[in-house]
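Demo today. Your pick:
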Amino acid sequence: MSLVGARPTDQRKGADRGIDGRLYFHVDNSGKTKQIIFSVKAGQNINVAFVRDLRGVIEREKAAIGVLITMEEPTKPMVKEAAEAGFYKDESAFDTGTYPRIQILTVEQLLSGAQVRYPRLLEATFKRAPKARGAAVEQLKLDPAE
């Protein structure tokens, strides 16, 4: 989870309900939080069922995006199922991009610098300072001779 900046879920005994980690983000200044659900699968037997399960989890949890992290390259049916999940589109004025609703990343891709695609609105975090009014502000000069 550290490769993607997500919080791991509580690892108590029992079912994890298909969630290995979560990442939260904001799409505007309203304070409304969206989430990305992560599912990690290792082993040689990854298949399209894992993508279907993740799709069900993000719908149940009302998450914006789901990410499946695997050790192996995804199969063609997995890529097709992920594509059929559609896109997350933010309706805020700050972001006009669309992001795959289900993303499949390998550990190799993450180690090579690949990132989860979601709205990153750093410029919306800070308010812009008001412009100075009236006469121009006189800038003081430092004179090393004084």
User: Anything to note?
Assistant: The chain has one domain: 7-119. The mean pLDDT is 80. The chain is about 20% helix and 25% strand. The CA atoms of residues 88 and 99 lie 5 Å apart.
